[in-house]
Amino acid sequence: MALLALWAFFIQLCISSPIPRPEISLVEWSKVKRSESGSLMGGVNFPDPCIVQYGSYWYAFATRTVGSGIHIQVAQSSDFDSWSLVYDDDGSQKDALPDLPPWVDSSSPNTWAPDVIQIDGQFVMYFSATSSSDSSKHCIGAATATSVTGPYTPISSSALICPLSQGGAIDASGYYDQATGNRYITYKIDGNSIGYGGACGNDVAPYVSTAIQLQQVSASDGVTLQGNASEILDNVGASDQGIVEAPSLVKSGSYYILFFSSGCFTQSTYTVNYATATSVTGPYTRAASPLFSTGTDGLTAPGGMDVFSDGEHMLFHAKAAGSVRALYNAVVRIDGGVVTA
Fold this sequence. Notes:
The chain has helices at about 1-15, 25-35, and strands at about 35-40, 50-55, 55-60, 75, 85, 110-120, 120-130, 135-145, 155, 170-175, 180-190, 210-215, 230-235, 245-250, 255-260, 270-275, 285, 290-295, 305, 315-320, 325-330, 335, 340.
């Protein structure tokens, strides 16, 4: 009887005691919390990437590689994780913008920071290039194609946005507001080109404006300007090294999220940052700290990001070997205007 009583006691103890949950180590938790990965494509140079989804593929477009004749690079992925450069049938690397318009200084075009959007059955590319009127400054142009990878054909012999007296313009990015049906381009006034020196040309006071602008365009073509541009963010001086750039705008719930980079892209101070507003025109309030900065999971100088319209899929670059700016990706989450990755 004593043995049976003891056995019954142990059975009752097991039933009433909770089963312990396995603990997640700090290393495992960091893998759950952080979502960025890279460098992708073997660490090839792929700066200032933009992202677009078409069919069952993701596509990315990027700044030219110095020393290359390619004006705009293209990469693709079927799963957002494994990326590869796109090549032509003859084995040469694909150039999405092979022919440049007359407003571009063809001797040194410096084609930068493309962005591609889809409007019905057509694709529109915004790009920055050196102005033939002033080779020290960039302007923004547009080109169209019927295939997502191009070739893209410039829409005009003139630049789309070209405020040379303010330093020119770069980093155009398209945004469609589904709530209102309005379409916009965000871009940066390139005050660096007329700054007073230092990091990326604008790290010496008095700091020149590098304002991020919001320009409404026709919802039907994405290139016909509607009214005047308005300023939605600017650098705050020394803490930004006089620079904010690379805007990418999305909406989540009642919040507009403006992703941007601050600091000089050649230095460790470069960041992926964001600001929020309840109106597309602002005012925008900066997050308390960057989303990605040097030291975040081993990253160096992350920036030049683009976020897909779903508000989740992000591409950006970060420094790899030497001066290479390699491709990285991340899945971000937006909750009540707070972004995590």
